[in-house]
Amino acid sequence: MATVTLTGVKGRQIQVPTTLFINNEFTPASTTETLTIENPSTGTPLATVSSASPADVDRAVHCATQALPAWKATPGAIRGTLLHKLADLIERDAEDLASLEALEGGLLYTDSMNMSMPQSISTLRYYAGWADKIDGKTLHLPDGGVGYTFREPLGVCAAIVPWNAPLMITIWKLAPALATGNCLIIKPSELTPLSALKLALLIREAGFPAGTVAILPGDGPKAGNALSSHPDIRKLSFTGSTVAGRAILHASASSNLKQISLELGGKGPSIVFSDCDLANALLWTRIGITANNGQICAAGSRIYVQRGIYDKFLAEYARLSKEEKPVIGDALDEKTTKGPVSSAAQLQKILGYVEEGKKRGVRVLFGGERIGEKGYFVQNTAFADVGQGEKMMREEIFGPVACIAPFDTEEEAIALANDSAHGLSSAIFTNDANRAHRVTAGIESGQVTVNAWSMLAANAPFGGVKESGFGRDMGEEALEGWTTVKVVKYNILPPAAAKL
């Protein structure tokens, strides 16, 4: 088995496979194509891994198809036990997994340990509990008939996972897929496959049957397209850009009409009313755009502040940023509080939006510059008085760039929030419960958080509306997306006439 040894937190030596994971074996790709993984903290190469071809996708689908009947027939309680075992192993190896997320993706080690690892573990345990409770219902049919429904797994499924929270989002898809009896082929982002390959070791150690899970590092045009157009894959769950989501929908429609779940881009609005707890609103609106350097689909990148407190909000927002003394450095260092963005391309994208805003005369409240020349670091940035038509107010930047603007009335705030192609996540800051209910009802968004930003929980469904996609990760609702309903109907016959 080809591996690379990387140095994690506290000098830990982490051995990671560098080939594909198919049928519980680590196997080379069918071609010599590879992916070079960079460390965004330094901008230097970290590892080289195999890149899956369409032929490798076919191989993984074949093995999953062979494994499906036995896995589908496995009692839910046993599937739940395996998910609990995987959670135990992630808990055991959390420091190594968090180190890999820091090394390959720039996610702060401390953030991974405090968010990604607990979320992954709790999600596995949540769906482990559901595995033997995927029930149907009984039906009373007209004319005295009876019936019942039950949920069946869809079959061989696939998941394409992004780079910004690779392990957590992988588990969001893997846990309900396996709990409901599906086999799953996972394509991690080409930027962050190492944590997924480490996870593959744990999946095998946990005792999941061969073929139940495959992990295929690869690029979008080859591996991703092969998954989305494969005639024997029954569902594909995707988290990523709206552009890629459209391509996946087209591929599904052109192949076998596989079910698709899409969690796409966001341009989340935070609405700050004058009656709010201002200190709390300042805290959460800053967290909402600076967490993971704003590289979160649910980031709160649009901040609308009621005019009566607008100037005070701007002054305090700028003061808090100036007084903050982030420790900028390697994402692996436990002392670091601000790490890099994920790649050189992402850095240039963020700086491009910032520079365009400056050229158009949008007021820079603070930030707006690259930090140093080594690695991919950028300042937290805020623009004030941003017009609703500005590109930065309408498009997902995926960086630590806040766009702030005033509003006057509740109705105007709702209209501004909804004036977007996206509808993934939003927040309201107010001490008026009636107002919170009214605004929550009016906002076009998959989730709304009151007096905080995007609180994640395994039992709370996550997904969007409009061009932010459809389908849900997490919660009981996710189970519906990994199953199909079968109904059985009985015509109750009268007793046969007694024989004379």
TrEMBL record:
Domain (Aldehyde dehydrogenase) ranges: 29-488
MF GO annotations: aldehyde dehydrogenase (NAD+) activity
Enzyme kind, highest EC tier: oxidoreductase
Pfam family, one: Aldedh
Transmembrane segments: none
EC number: 1.2.1.3
Matches recorded under InterPro entries: Ald_DH/histidinol_DH, Ald_DH_C, Ald_DH_N, Aldehyde_DH_dom
Pathway(s) this gene product operates in, as recorded in its UniProt entry: Mycotoxin biosynthesis
UniProt catalytic activity: an aldehyde + NAD(+) + H2O = a carboxylate + NADH + 2 H(+)
GO biological process: carboxylic acid biosynthetic process
Gene3D superfamilies recorded: Aldehyde Dehydrogenase, Chain A, domain 1, Aldehyde Dehydrogenase, Chain A, domain 2
Family: Belongs to the aldehyde dehydrogenase family.
PANTHER family assigned: ALDEHYDE DEHYDROGENASE-RELATED (PTHR11699)
Name by which UniProt lists this protein: aldehyde dehydrogenase (NAD(+))
Organism this protein belongs to: Aspergillus niger
Lineage, highest ranks first: Eukaryota, Fungi, Dikarya, Ascomycota, Pezizomycotina
